[in-house]
Amino acid sequence: MAKVLMKGNEALGEAAIRAGCRYFFGYPITPQSELPHYLAWRLPEVGGVFLQAESEIAAINMVYGAAGSGARAMTSSSSPGVSLKMEGISYIAGAELPCVIVNMQRGGPGLGGIQPGQSDYFQAVKGGGHGDYKLLVLAPASVQEMVDTMAKAFELADKYRNPVMILGDGILGQMMEPVELPEMKDVETLPVKPWATTGAKERTPNIINSLFLDPEELEAHNLKLQAKYEQMIQEETMAESYQTDDAEIVVVGYGSSARVAKAAVDQARAEGIKAGLFRPITLFPFPKKEIEQACRQAKNVLTVEMSLGQLVEDVRYNLEFRVPVHFYGRVGGMVPTTRAVLTEIKRLTQGGEKA
Amino acid sequence: MLEEIILAGFGGQGVMSMGQLLAYAGMMEDKHVSWIPSYGPEMRGGTANCSVTISDAPVSSPLISEPHTLIVLNRPSLEKFEQDVQPDGLLLLNSSLVDLEPKRQDLSVLKIPASELADEKLKNSRVANMIILGAFVELTKAVSMDSVIAALKKVLPEYRHNLIPLNRQALEIGADLARAGR
Fold first, then answer.
1. How far is the alpha carbon of B149 from chain A, nearest alpha carbon, in Å?
2. Cα distance from A178 to chain B (closest Cα, Å)?
3. For the complex shown, is ipTM > 0.90?
4. B2-181: CATH number
5. Which of A5, A146, A174, A341 best probes binding to B when mutated, by most B CB atoms within 10 angstroms?
6. Whole-angstrom Cα distance, residue B72 to residue B28?
7. Opening angle at CA B39, ends B14 and B60, nearest 5
8. pLDDT tens sequence across A153-185
């Protein structure tokens, strides 16, 4: 199929439809509003439902309902809006329902700003809502990868009966890039969900719930969830390692930051510095084996983020503090520049001033 | 080949579509391209800008801090972006609306009275942006004129396809000016 030039937000919307999503519930917020705008006209064309809810909280609970009935359902928002959805996300994880949540991050905390950010890493990866639950968190870095990630997100959500988050940022949502769209999935051929509440005529009723008043039962439920997260750690990690084979310094970043880091790595290589890039694509599960492999001969590691130090903690933890892990970040909608990352690479490999 | 362009002007002057045309044309030539708008609290009549990258290699960051080329359709855009252009870079400006001399001495500057030309020659001031785009394409060869014209069909909605000949004329006026001014 021929490539088209699409905005990240719109491409995600189209990719969701092609992945079999027919239900979208959301509430507008910059910089992700083009996604609901797109689905508002596009979903009805394919017999789907677009609903602008009265709030983010309502939207996520509508996703809860639609997912419970077995449909591929999705919501999207940006940082403050995602915070509002946290209660519902915890419920969905507790009730073991598959759905996709998109977060096109902007600067925080609070209302913050509307320019790109990456400071919701902890919220996405460590929980955000209450209880011992995990989201599968996917962090694409281009419009094409966002499109490819969407189908994967729905498959993983179904496989684990778990909410999956696509963690993007304002740049990825707003930018246009050439993209090749996948074929349209036939909704009729999607895997059957025998647990879904589809009407209990002539069968035992299915119950979808996250309430377990018996502590023993709730503990058992939690252990079952943990086993699922363990399986994700074993089976689902994804990462990109670029020029890391002989790298003395490995730059680590995800999403838009990784693109800037990659350009800095290329420039460093051009100047004779053995630099490489490690880009986690799954943020939970964190690609531990992959980062260990990428950094095995590194003397220094540098994480680059649009936050003041979140991913860096996971990088240190997963490398088991065996390599010095440094940090460079910009926040508030400011984006790291290639030049600044290159300056940091040079400082760490050759000494010199901080960027 | 790497061409990084910032296009800026008033909302409604067509800077976003100029950028999209360039990105589309680059894509049609199998180049790596990206386009990203400014998305602050913009409004019609306020300032708007977008960044376009056309490259042989994958695009790192779509955000451009130091463009090779700056295209400005109004005065505030010149004031805002002039100092960011790379040394010896290119500056195209709409001299009908920019009543200010560029400060930089190192830039190649092409001043085009695009709004007046669009009015006089084409009786439609709204294609001023296309005159400047035509000049840019002629000067840099970042993409071919044929690709830009083909991209018009993609960027303009179908009910506006009747305007393609007009846009094409505007592009050619700009290209002629660039050839003459070189």
1. 16
2. 7
3. yes
4. 3.40.920.10
5. A5
6. 25
7. 95
8. 999 999 999 999 999 999 999 999 999 999 999
